[in-house]
Amino acid sequence: MTLGKINLITPPDKLYNSNISYLLVKPSTKVKVQFQNMLTDLKEDVNVYVYDDNENDIDWLLGVAQIVDFVIIDIDNCDQLTKLFVALLLTQSNTHYITTDEITPYKLISRNRIFNFDWIQEVLNSTDDDDKNEDHDE
User: Fold this and answer.
1) Buried b (16+ CB within 10 A) or exposed e, 63-80
2) Which of these, 3, 59, 64, 113, is most buried using a 10 Å CB contact count?
């Protein structure tokens, strides 16, 4: 069994390939650990873009959000500048968000609130199944 390669990409870089890609926006340590644990048994190569604590390149953030398969925003960990763009990112169907804020009505913009990464594992498993079916069809 061969494990997949994880490409970690930060501003200002971008990687153009056909790997499944994730963008983590201001992930807390807890989110990073959960995401890392989810990737431990991955058999496919993936790109993981990280817009972390000290980043303020909004142009890069918005551009990468357009090319990745999944955007995951840790809203509670966002700085004031990044929070100005959260609503824009939440309008995209590929964006999922984590928050403990029950007051701000993010759910009016997006129904993609998540509490853990179990759903990503389901997506990856279905991708593996699709690959197996394609191999079997040939």
Assistant:
1) ebbeebebbbbbbebbee
2) 64
